[in-house]
Design a protein that fits this description.
Elements lengths: L4 E3 L2 E3 L6 E7 L6 H14 L3 E6 L2 H4 L2 H5 L1 E4 L2 E3 H7 L4 H14 L3 E5 L2 H8 L6 E3 L7 H9 L4 E4 L5 H11 L4 E6 L14 H9 L3 E5 L5 H9 L3 E5 L17 H18 L11 H7 L5
């Protein structure tokens, strides 16, 4: 069995219940009230944590990218959009207090060193490293320097690139997430059999970050061995926003968590046994002959 990673009070490992993360990301559309509604939905669904994203817009994007025309509720440029979706200190203080009130941990994907230092002030139980940052060695070293558990998504990455990232981060507090970085992802590109491949290669807990439409394949990832699942959560898939269509609405999230827990019960421990409930049926129906 691969090593376990402790996040808050929960163990993430092969032998523990699947750790379910509701990725709020930018689906709040710049509204703290919508963020709170998404937190409520995650709590009602039985999720173990919620996750946000944090960027320093002027660091992550070039001036040319920010000046490009893009119509949104925040203005007419891509920069207006990116800045409008970012929460600052007062918003995250409110989110932090609300998550404490609702007794659900929160963390964030930080896309640059300044954002990592910003979130570090809130003492998160872990960090999620986005697939886009997997080859950013300087940022990975900043993540490793926090000493916190790290969750690394592996979308759009080769094994050689993952090797290098794991070398920088170390394996002591690392969880890898198999991921396909398209929104939404095509079923034939999910490649869930990579999950045991990553487990064997790196000997760390491996989970799944899904962007597909539907729930069955995410539950199948748990059957394949995922000990953590992350899906984007939305109030309504038809809402404005680039990630909404690849997200799961509250009712669907509840069904997904329910089905994951049912599958965990059904998988058992692999030991073949005769159950007490079978004995009366066996005595009634079984013929024994030599």
């Amino acid at each position: 069995m691969n090593q376990a990673v402790t996040i808050g009070t929960r163990s993430v490992s092969e032998g523990s219940p699947c750790y379910v993360v509701a990725e709020i990301g930018i689906n709040h559309n710049g509204s703290v009230e919508k963020a709170k509604q998404l937190i409520d939905a995650a709590v009602a669904a039985g999720c173990d944590a919620v996750k946000f994203q944090k960027r320093t817009v002027e660091v992550v994007y070039t001036p040319d990218e920010l000046s490009q025309s893009r119509i949104s509720p925040f203005g007419d440029t891509n920069g207006d959009l990116k800045r409008g979706l970012e929460f600052g200190k007062s918003e995250y203080r409110e989110i932090d207090a609300y998550c404490r009130e609702k007794d659900i941990p929160w963390c964030a994907s930080c896309w640059d060193e300044g954002s990592l230092e910003f979130i570090e002030a809130f003492g998160p139980p872990c960090y999620k490293i986005p697939s886009a940052s997997l080859t950013d060695g300087a940022l990975l070293r900043h993540y490793a320097g926090t000493g916190r558990p790290l969750i690394l998504s592996t979308g759009m990455s080769s094994l050689e690139e993952i090797d290098r990232a794991v070398e920088i981060l170390g394996t002591e507090r690392l969880v890898l997430l198999h991921c396909t970085s398209t929104y939404p992802s095509r079923l034939e590109e999910l490649n869930l059999k990579v999950i045991p491949t990553l487990k064997e290669r790196y000997r760390v807990p491996v989970g799944y970050s899904g962007h597909e439409v539907g729930l069955a394949t995410t539950v199948a990832a748990v059957v394949t061995g995922a000990c953590m699942v992350e899906r984007h959560i939305t109030l309504d898939r038809s809402m404005w926003g680039s990630d909404q269509a690849a997200s799961v609405e509250p009712q669907g999230f509840s069904r997904m968590v329910r089905d994951i827990r049912a599958v965990e019960k059904a998988l058992g421990d692999g030991v073949k046994r005769v159950y007490e409930s079978e004995i009366p049926i066996r005595e009634k129906l079984r013929r024994v002959s030599s």
